[in-house]
Amino acid sequence: MFLENLQYLTVTGEIFMFRSAICGVATEHxxxxxxxxxxxxxxxxxxxxxxxxCVLNGKRYEGRAGDCxxxxxxxxxxxxxxxxxxQFINDWIYFDGEKEExxxxxxxxxxxxxxxxxxxxxxxxxxxxxxSVRRDAYSDRLISDSIYRMLVTVKRAERVQKNEDTPLLTSxxxxxxxxxxxxxxxxxxxxxxxxxxxxxxxxxxxxxGFFGVSPMNDLLExxxxxxxxxxxxxxxxxxxxxxxxxxxxxxxxxxxxxxRTGISPAAYx
Length: 269
Hints:
The chain is an alpha+beta fold. 43% of the residues lie in helices and 20% in strands.
């Protein structure tokens, strides 16, 4: 399944960061088929669902199902099945983007990167396909955002591969996202530690070492940030804000808020 999308100018005339040229999801190639182009006109992102080979800078590499590959415009793109009697299946997208937008990501071009989920890009590419057909005022932004998410996924996988993000750090990052996303819940150190699989003391030491802040102070900062946003709306009562942000009582919330900001929640309204 694929679609060409070569009209880069948006409905409003705005140009977004990334633009899709052509893409496909779960594309099945016939037995023995080898894809080959000596000069790719776009950036290329491939994620393979079956074992494969590829050629990078003149050298042949063999990859496993779940490996992905990112290549620059102008690259020779060559890949196929490991054996002539086999087919290969992949998700893929050709896209364009400005160099100054891509460079800060420090992406791993011409490198096989293993992904935990061989279909990780499929929903995002499918979104690109659907928005390319829909073509309304929001489509170009959604396409650009989908491509950006794919690139960030590749970068994060590279960090895991290089042990910059160890499995332990990755699991703590995921737990931190869960805690801060559900800031209104009744969190205790015991509850957090149980989710990590460590004792309270070990959990606190690891969390502080990874993020430079204790887990409870991290949570309180998030609660304070959200309380300010709710109060600024001038819609909620102080007691409602306290409850929404996970504070056990309006008295505790008011004292904490004044200590941190210098004014009471009521004065902040």
